[in-house]
Amino acid sequence: MVLKLYAVSDGPPSLSVRQTLAALQLPHELVSVDYGAGEHLTEGYAQMNPQKEIPVLDDDGFFLSESNAIMQYLCDKYKRDSPLYPTEAKARAIINQRMCFNLASYYANISAYTLAPIFFDYERSSLGLKKVHLVLEVFDTYLARLGARHAAADHLTIADFPLVNSTMTLEAINVDFSKYERVHKWYNDFKRNYPDLWKISEDAMKELKQFSAHPPDLSNLNHPFHPIRH
Ligand SMILES: N[C@@H](CCC(=O)N[C@@H](CS)C(=O)NCC(=O)O)C(=O)O
Asked: Is 54 in the pocket of ligand 1 (CB under 6 A)?
């Protein structure tokens, strides 16, 4: 059975998995999950992912959530020799570290500032912005210390995708991060060097810009914890 990815068109974790599928040239079916209709909050969806989050990979009945785990699995299972996720211990450790950094710190702090107030009743605060700058500074330092052209190696790896998609949400709401010169250069190099992969992020960025200008009506979404804007 062909790989199936349950994804949402403007969700950074979904975009990163789609970029991995594209970079590995893996045939797959994309199943669009309607976030606004709360499709991911149903009991049926929870059978696939009890966290009720998007994306989920269905590999012939093997269901996997958490975008990082999905990207790693796709490389391990289908393209073990791909430079996108090398098997050599230290090379792989740097990639894993960057993906953990993105999940726990970079994306966590950036999305709380960029995405959450677009969709829900949250205010952007100066503390939120301060945290964005702190994680940008850390990422800039990682890039400086590695001295490579990509986030975790001298070539493209799966660590670049989640970091690009987090950074893309800054551009979507016009946060100027040009003073983080290495981040800025790495991000723009990605756009220039991988136009097909960037297109996946760019289409989502356009949607986010639209939503930022005209926040979506989620008043029918009975969300378990996010405050709905009325
Ligand atoms: N750590 C998860 C995060 C996935 C995630 O948060 N996805 C969002 C959509 S972009 C979601 O489904 N959120 C659930 C909700 O807001 O109800 C991953 O990397 O896959």
From this structure: yes
